[in-house]
Amino acid sequence: MIKLAERVKNLKPSATLTVDAKANVLKESGVEVINLSAGEPDFDTPDYIKEAAKKALDNGMTKYVAIPGLLSLRKAICERLKIDYGFNYTPEEILVTTGAKQAIFNFLLAVLNKGDEVLILSPYWVSYPAMVEIAEGIPKIIPS
């Protein structure tokens, strides 16, 4: 049997996913539920996004890309940041991730050493302390 690392053994169940699972059980039993737990929208993906995804698949965009993300996407992000906010970035300064939490987690893994303290302003997303702990840091919650 595979032996789990101590950092994994000490993880607590996600409060968000626990509430989400309970809401889904209620929904499946016919109870009308407004589920605000997991941040899932209550509407379908817009058609223009579905069509863009289908077009990308049809055009063979199914391969691995550079670690920081597609160059064309990073260039587009630079343009959008310049137009919307007046920021001037180069594609080399942009890192595309699967989401903000993944970006934060990657950052924590890259910079924390065992025992480093990380200040987390409250209120915060429920998973932030666990992310710090997995990276062997010590979360310090700061009330706001």
Automatic annotation (TrEMBL):
Example GO BP: amino acid metabolic process
Gene3D superfamilies on file: Aspartate Aminotransferase, domain 1, Type I PLP-dependent aspartate aminotransferase-like (Major domain)
Superkingdom to which the source organism belongs: Bacteria
Pfam family, one: Aminotran_1_2
Keyword terms, alphabetized: Aminotransferase, Pyridoxal phosphate, Transferase
Cofactors that this protein relies on: pyridoxal 5'-phosphate
Transferase is among the record's keywords: yes
GO molecular function, one term: pyridoxal phosphate binding
InterPro entries named among the record's database cross-references: Aminotransferase_I/II_large, AspAT/PAT-like, PyrdxlP-dep_Trfase, PyrdxlP-dep_Trfase_major, PyrdxlP-dep_Trfase_small
Domain (Aminotransferase class I/classII large): residue spans on this chain: 32-140
PANTHER family: ASPARTATE AMINOTRANSFERASE (PTHR46383)
Family named by the database record: Belongs to the class-I pyridoxal-phosphate-dependent aminotransferase family.
Protein name: Aminotransferase class I/II-fold pyridoxal phosphate-dependent enzyme
